[in-house]
Write a structure and sequence with these properties.
The complex is a heterotetramer. By secondary structure, chain A is an alpha+beta fold. Chain A has one domain (about 5-130): Alpha-Beta Plaits (2-Layer Sandwich), CATH 3.30.70. Chain A contains 4 helices and 8 strands. The longest helix of chain A has 9 residues, at about 15-25. In chain B, strands 2-1-3-4 form a 4-stranded mixed β-sheet, with helices on one face. Chain B has 2 domains: about 10-60; about 75-150, Glutaredoxin (3-Layer(aba) Sandwich). By secondary structure, chain C is of the alpha/beta class. Chain C contains 25 helices and 21 strands. In chain C, the strands form 7 sheets. In chain C, strands 14-13-17-15-16 form a 5-stranded mixed β-sheet. In chain C, strands 2-1-3-4 form a 4-stranded mixed β-sheet, with helices on one face. In chain C, strand 3 (about 80) and strand 4 form a beta hairpin. Chain C starts with 5 loop residues before the first helix and ends with a strand. Classes of the chains: A alpha+beta, B alpha+beta, C alpha/beta, D alpha+beta. Chains B and C meet through helix 2, helix 4, helix 5 and helix 6 of B and helix 2, strand 13, strand 17, helix 18 and helix 25 of C.
């Protein structure tokens, strides 16, 4: 059974708890990571949209990676960047039409949402349930 | 210095046009022009489908190739073991001094180039100096510079 | 003509022998590199010119054969009159007329062209009686110097391709491999790995495509055996390779020829074309279902390409950089496919083993080191040249019986074998039998077979420095111990040669050497410190003389020597003044000359031209 | 699955893995300067050598390069024997002679107690340790813009003919993965310079900020089948655009997408 992020912009308050959760979850060697999720202005008053990788069917990030550093994780349904293989060329960062591959200047890594190993922490922490991670019928 | 590179198509035609021919093609170009002109490397890269950087890498890795034009007479001094212990190094020093250039260089008037080569397989007549493919055996410091004349 | 049945091969051989037999005599002129440099071509031209002028009964130009190297390069140009086997040395074009008149038209021998035995001053008439040849046993070099390398019929006439016919018609690939394994033939390229085992491993790898490569790179400076074989008997190399290909199941082969051997390349190319024309190479060899073709691959001057993985990359047109391998190239070689790589001499032994049998071959040589080994005997030895002896022959026999001892009656100091991967052995090791295992045990190695003799005028520190310099310039530069380590070793030897070394430097070099041996990626680095270590081991005194006394006992290291004119002996002939390109010598005619030590570059030109031995080195 | 003993502790590994990967996973501090998972193992720096043996080898030992040695069941591995430490010291000492002023080398050498080279330092040193990572990564990405030239001690890394490299797209992968930061580049305004070649950077259509080079964008859209206009925005602008378009859908639908 596949799971997906369910984003309900009308419920999002832009509180950025998801961002914090993401950063802390991806902390490494005592440094917090850069968030992979951003609640951004939806263009209308008080409308926020949490923007996060949708794990596309035919992802531009994977196609753009010339060293094959991005692999699909069968167990979680996430496309994950292997930091050991990644050479930091920024091709995927430039290629993703949703801007969901990004560069973490602190940890010096190209990053993207990895669904936290199948159970995204951001969804747990969303106080307004604007962001949930649920099984969907395929 | 410009070179007519009209021999290149003929050279390319002699070999299968794939990357494995790179060394053979460069050998033929070197033989024809006595060095590897820059433009020839560019053409080789595109004809054989090899990256230019790889062509350059091969051209600088092997002793047989040179990227600078050679003098009229190429003086190759063997410094193989047999030649060395029979005084090959002294002959090299002397020829270098005589022509005022070091091994690997060419005189300003493009008359002479000196090259050292590690064994040409003529050890029995050491020390050996080859002037434009003519082998001179048992060269001594007394007669080395005479080989450069005539 | 295309041979489609083995029987035709026999007919061809017999036919050619008959045609050749119409000449009452044949003349072979050595056209090896050494003799060519000494004017062998002019000898051939002189024969032609002379025979055009005068008619000789049962003899014409066709009976004058341009052959490969006879081996005795020291005495070239060489001319042999067969069937008597009269051996003429140092022949000049003007001698040809009288050779034809006396030795061909008549049965006279020209005394002055005969070889003089230096031991007793006696003239020796026949090839086989000369000590240089009589102590040899020629298998790999069996045809070199006897046949015309550019004519395939010459090879066929001496039972060439007979082994191939035997293999294709009466043996299975497994039987071939068994025979080679039983013969205990070991790779002649240096390592001495069993050829049969290698072939077996290759055959056992599951693969559709396999390759056979002949290593004709022979990069060791001071070695030219393989060169002579490729130039003088190219077809036997091809035959060995074809048999190997049949045994392991390969369809494509390559011969990797060293760039410095242009003639070898030309001869091989010609041989490939001829054997293809005769149906001995290419599709459906000798009318059977077996097909195999050979491509020539020219090296471009890199010693490291003698290393198997580097060679294979070079064959593929890339930079000859070795790949570290925990999987052997016989399993994963050229283009990652199973590949048999043997050197020239190894392949040349194959047809003989097939024809005469493994048991016969095993009787030659010593246990586990069967057969013979070709060497190039060079350096400060009287009879320089190409030789082949049974394995287990001692150094002493080679140097004194065959080589005739040291030049100018000087004393023997050492012999270097194995090239830059080998070592120097001193007088105490002279009775060492020459075979793979004994040499390795003594701290040297067989290598491809260069044997460089050194006398008391050879400085062993300089020899170590020389080899390190060679290796520094030949290292591919991929791994650190070899690239940086050998460079530092070379710097240290230079320091000692210049008289600035310390005793700690010796220790430092030994320590660094050990790490280079352990740490390097390929054979070049792993064995690179061997020449240094062996000279430190056997000639430590000489190192100490450079360090403690600031003296080079052999008078080689420039910083530690001085040239001086002995006033009492100098006649003032001024020869040295003219010879000195640095203008360091001054003096008046008929008066003793003076060398200015500040200008003198110690090139030794003065001493070389001085007829009165009036210049001494101290 | 294979089981091995590393410094006395059991460790498991997947068939086909190299020893170094396992050592790293087991958090064993083993230096390696020429290794990167994106490219084939190289075996150039020789620092990752380890000692291996097996029960059935009857005391026989072997020193192997862990980055190249495939795992084998029953291997007994030692990573810090006296011999290995001595070897690494020597190698670092040699590195220091080549790169006496390079911080990355100084630091690593200091970890092994080598603070100064005992050999003759080269005159005119630079920071290049010839690990070949730059050229191998460049090859791996399909550009092959730079290569090793010459050989032995005179080996160096350079673009063809030492001129501006025609096959370079200015992706910076070489510079970013250089263990000693030897490869220099500069980004000034909308110009990037590396290997003596100048590149124009794509200008983000919304914010005007620079992104990747035009050449790299062209290459990616051509070879990876990605619409060229994807590259006209920076990731940040892409996110903003995404939020705006999803916001619109949400408003139109009065509620939620999906």
């Amino acid at each position: 059974m596949k799971s997906r992020f369910i984003v309900t912009p009308s419920l999002c308050t832009g509180c950025r708890t998801c961002e914090l959760a993401c950063s802390f979850t991806h902390a490494q060697d005592g440094k917090i990571g850069r968030s992979r999720i951003y609640p951004l202005d939806g263009g209308f008053k008080d409308l926020y949209v949490p923007v996060v990788c949708l794990q596309c069917e035919d992802p531009a990030c994977v196609k753009s990676c010339l060293v094959n550093a991005i692999h699909f994780n069968e167990n979680t349904g996430a496309y994950e960047i292997n930091p050991e293989i990644c050479v930091g060329c920024m091709a995927c960062v430039a290629a993703c039409p949703f801007g969901c591959s990004l560069f973490d200047t602190q940890q010096n890594l190209v990053i993207k949402c990895d669904l936290c190993g199948g159970d995204p922490v951001c969804a747990h922490f969303c106080p307004s349930k604007a962001l949930t991670y649920k099984p969907i019928a395929t | 210095m410009t070179h007519k590179l009209d021999k290149l198509p003929e050279i390319f035609a002699r070999h299968p046009q794939d990357p494995s021919s790179l060394i053979m093609v460069l050998q033929d170009i070197q033989q024809e022009y006595r060095y590897l002109p820059c433009e020839a490397l560019l053409q080789t890269a595109s004809v054989l489908g090899v990256k230019l950087s790889k062509v350059f890498s091969v051209a600088t890795f092997y002793n047989a190739f040179g990227l600078a034009p050679k003098g009229e007479k190429v003086v190759r001094i063997c410094v193989g073991t047999a030649c060395h212990i029979r005084g090959g190094a002294l002959i090299k020093d002397q020829i270098e001094h005589h022509l005022g250039i070091k091994a690997g260089q060419t005189t300003g008037d493009m008359k002479f180039s000196i090259e050292v080569v590690a064994c040409v397989g003529a050890c029995a007549m050491a020390p050996v100096v080859i002037v434009n493919d003519k082998y001179h055996g048992e060269v001594s410091v007394g007669n080395a510079t005479r080989l450069l004349k005539g | 003509m295309r041979i489609v049945k083995p029987k035709q091969l026999e007919q061809l051989a017999a036919g050619y022998r008959k045609t050749a037999g119409k000449h009452k005599k044949t003349v072979t002129v050595c056209c090896g590199t050494g003799c060519l440099a000494k004017g062998a071509q002019k000898i051939v031209d002189a024969f032609e010119e002379c025979l055009n002028r005068r008619k000789v009964k049962d003899f014409d130009v066709e009976a004058v054969k341009k052959t490969g190297c006879h081996g005795f390069c020291e005495q070239g140009p060489l001319v042999v009159i067969e069937p008597q086997g009269i051996f003429y040395t140092k022949v000049k074009p003007k001698d040809i007329e009288s050779i034809i008149e006396k030795s061909i038209e008549n049965d006279e021998v020209i005394e002055k062209l005969l070889y003089t035995n230096p031991q007793d001053g006696r003239k020796i008439e026949k090839y086989s009686d000369i000590p240089f040849y009589s102590h040899q046993r020629r298998i790999a070099l069996r045809n070199v110097g006897k046949i015309v390398p550019s004519d395939i019929r010459e090879y066929i006439a001496v039972d060439g391709y007979k082994a191939l016919a035997k293999v294709l018609t009466t043996m299975t690939p497994d039987q071939v491999i068994d025979e080679i394994t039983k013969s205990e033939l070991r790779g002649r390229g240096g390592g001495g790995f069993s050829a049969g085992k290698k072939w077996r491993t290759c055959r056992n790898v599951a693969a559709d495509v396999r390759y056979v490569i002949c290593n004709g790179d022979e990069g060791d400076p001071g070695a030219f055996m393989d060169c002579s074989i490729m130039e003088g008997d190219p077809h036997s190399v091809l035959e060995g390779m074809i048999i190997c290909a049949f045994a392991v199941g390969a369809k494509q082969g390559y011969i990797y020829v060293r760039d410095e051997y242009p003639l070898a390349g030309i001869r091989l190319q010609k041989a490939i074309a001829a054997s293809e024309e005769y149906g001995l190479l290419g599709d459906k060899i000798l009318g059977t279902d077996f097909s195999f073709s050979i491509r020539l691959s020219r090296g471009a001057g890199a010693f490291v390409c003698g290393e198997s993985s580097a060679l294979m990359r070079s064959v593929a047109g890339e930079v000859g950089e070795p790949r570290a391998k925990y999987i052997h190239s016989v399993v994963k070689g050229l283009y990652d496919l199973p590949t048999v790589l043997n050197n020239v001499e190894t392949f040349v032994n194959v047809p003989v083993i097939i024809n005469s049998g493994a048991d016969w071959f095993k009787k030659i040589g010593v246990a586990k080191n069967s057969g013979t080994k070709a060497f190039s005997l060079v350096g400060k030895v009287r009879n320089t040249g190409l030789i082949e002896v049974a394995m287990g022959t001692t150094m002493r026999e080679i140097i004194y019986d065959i080589g005739g001892g040291i030049i100018d009656g000087r004393t023997f100091k050492g012999v270097q074998t194995g090239g830059p991967s080998g070592g120097c052995l001193p007088e105490t090791q002279l009775d060492l039998p020459v075979d793979f295992d004994s040499l390795t045990k003594a701290g040297s190695m067989m290598g491809s077979g260069g044997m460089i003799i050194m006398d008391d005028k050879t400085c062993m520190v300089d020899v170590a420095r020389y080899f390190l310099n060679f290796l520094v310039s030949e290292s591919c530069g991929k791994c650190v111990p070899c690239r940086e380590g050998l460079y530092q070793l070379h710097k240290l030897t230079e320091k000692i040669c210049e008289g600035n070394g310390t005793e700690e430097d010796i220790e430092k070099m030994e320590k660094l050497s050990q790490q280079i041996v352990v740490g390097s990626l390929c054979g070049l680095g792993k064995s690179g410190p061997k020449p240094l270590l062996s000279t430190i081991k056997y000639y430590r005194d000489e190192y100490l003389a450079h360090i403690r006394d600031k003296k080079c006992p052999a008078g080689v290291c420039k910083n530690l020597i001085a040239y001086r004119v002995i006033p009492e002996t100098c006649t003032g002939c001024m020869a040295c003044v003219n010879a000195c390109v640095y203008q360091a010598i001054t003096g008046r005619k008929k008066e003793p000359q003076v060398i200015n030590p500040d200008i003198c570059q110690k090139c030794g030109a003065c001493a070389a031209v001085c007829k009165y031995n009036a210049i001494e080195v101290s | 699955m294979v089981t091995m003993t590393i410094n006395g502790k059991l460790a498991r590994a997947k068939e086909g893995e190299m020893l170094l990967a396992v050592l790293r996973r087991e958090k064993i501090d083993i230096p390696a300067l020429c290794h990167h998972e994106a490219v084939e193992p190289y075996g150039g720096c020789r620092l990752c050598m380890v000692e291996i043996t097996k029960k059935e080898w009857a005391g026989g030992k072997n020193m192997v390069t862990s980055c190249l040695y495939p795992v084998e069941d029953g291997l007994i591995i030692q990573t810090h024997t006296t011999d290995l430490i001595e070897l690494r010291k020597t190698i670092l000492d040699l590195y220091l002679a080549r790169c006496p002023n390079t911080p990355a080398i100084q630091d690593l050498a200091a970890q092994y107690g080598v603070t100064q080279t005992s050999y003759e330092p080269v005159t005119d040193p630079d920071d290049c340790i010839l690990c070949g990572l730059c050229t191998r990564i460049c090859d791996r990405m399909g550009f092959g813009a730079i290569s090793a030239v010459n050989r032995g001690h005179s080996r160096e890394i350079a673009p063809p003919m030492k001129n501006a490299p025609p096959d370079c797209v200015g992706c910076l992968a070489c510079a970013l993965n250089c263990p000693t930061n030897h490869i220099k580049y500069s980004d000034r305004g909308f110009t990037r310079e590396i290997w003596g070649r100048k590149f124009d950077l794509v200008r983000d259509a919304k914010t005007g900020q620079p992104t990747i080079t035009k050449e790299f964008a062209d290459y990616l859209s051509k070879h990876s089948d990605i619409p060229r206009d994807y590259f006209e925005l920076k990731d940040e602008s892409h996110r903003r655009e995404t939020a705006l378009s999803l916001g619109k859908i949400a408003i139109w639908n009065r509620e939620v997408p999906q």
